[in-house]
Every structure is written in structure tokens, then in C-alpha cells.
Design brief:
Number of domains: 1
Structural class: alpha+beta
Helix content: 10-25%
Distance between the termini: 19 Å
Largest sheet: 4 strands, mixed
Strand order of the largest sheet: 3-8-9-10
Number of strands: 10
Shape: elongated
Length: about 150
């Protein structure tokens, strides 16, 4: 695993482990009044983890800088000089107890990550938490003012 994959794996697992569920299924009835029912229950948990680099000065900032055309880098790199706002990893876990199926959705405040980085993380989650690979989505908000985790 490369450095980015290890970082994403750690962030994902910490975020997933921090997911909390109230355990009480609540759905809207046809009259608009909320009612509890075991037949349509979902367990939902959410977690969030700050992923702002601890020492941001000198970190390459993604997007709006140089571009790679072929094997040639054109333009100039941008480097962080401080932190204006934290960046986050946010995770939502949804389980339907009647079927035991779980889906995980994660959003990272990064410009992007490649499948080369994401797939090992999804495999690790599948191995350690039992959530099927195809039920896991890890996406990026495409933040042009965050660290360049994509390598562009």
C-alpha cells in the first residue's frame, strides 16, 4: 500500500468506526406523522473525521496550478501556507437488518483519488468489516483548495 492508500484506509476505518446509530427505525406514515415500524427498519450511522494535514505548510495544493500534458508538467505548483478551514472525511453507513445488507458511502474533501488508491481500501473494509466491495462508495468532493492526493 502506498502512502495515500494507507492514509485513506486509516481515515475510512476511523470514520466508519465512529458511525453511530440510534437504532430506532422511524418512517413517515401516509398521513405525514412519523411512526416506528420494524418492517421497514434501517440502521443508519454517520461519522466524520478531520483530515487536514497536521503540518500543512508546503503541502501541494490540488488543481488550478500546473497541468501534466503527456509527460511534461506545465505551469507552477501551489503550496499551502496555512489552514483556512479543515477538510473532512464523512461516512454514512446504512444497514437493513431484515436482510443484513450494508452500504457505506464516504466523501473526502480532496480533489480526487484513483481506483488504484480506493480499491485496496474497499478490499480491506470488506475483509475487516464484512461489507461487500460493491456496496462501498468512496468519493471526493473535488476540492481545489485541499491537498493533492490525486497526484495531478
Amino acid at each position: 500500500m502506498n502512502r495515500i492508500t494507507r492514509l485513506v484506509a486509516g481515515i475510512t476505518l476511523v470514520s466508519l468506526l465512529s458511525c453511530k446509530s440510534d437504532g430506532g427505525p422511524v418512517v413517515p406514515a401516509s398521513n405525514g406523522v412519523l411512526q416506528s415500524t420494524e418492517e421497514i427498519s434501517l440502521l443508519v450511522g454517520a461519522g466524520a473525521q478531520v483530515i487536514t494535514p497536521e503540518e500543512p505548510e508546503g503541502v501541494v495544493i490540488a488543481g488550478f496550478g500546473g497541468v501534466i500534458t503527456g509527460a511534461i508538467f506545465v505551469g507552477s505548483m501551489r503550496y499551502a501556507t496555512g489552514v483556512h478551514d479543515d477538510i473532512w472525511a464523512r461516512t454514512l453507513a446504512v444497514t437493513k437488518p431484515a436482510t443484513g445488507k450494508t452500504i457505506l458511502l464516504q466523501s473526502l474533501d480532496l480533489v480526487g483519488l484513483s481506483q488504484i488508491d480506493i480499491n485496496p481500501v474497499k478490499r480491506r473494509i470488506e475483509e475487516e468489516l464484512g461489507v461487500p466491495f460493491e456496496n462501498i462508495t468512496i468519493a471526493s468532493t473535488h476540492n481545489h483548495m485541499g491537498p493533492d492526493a490525486f497526484g495531478i
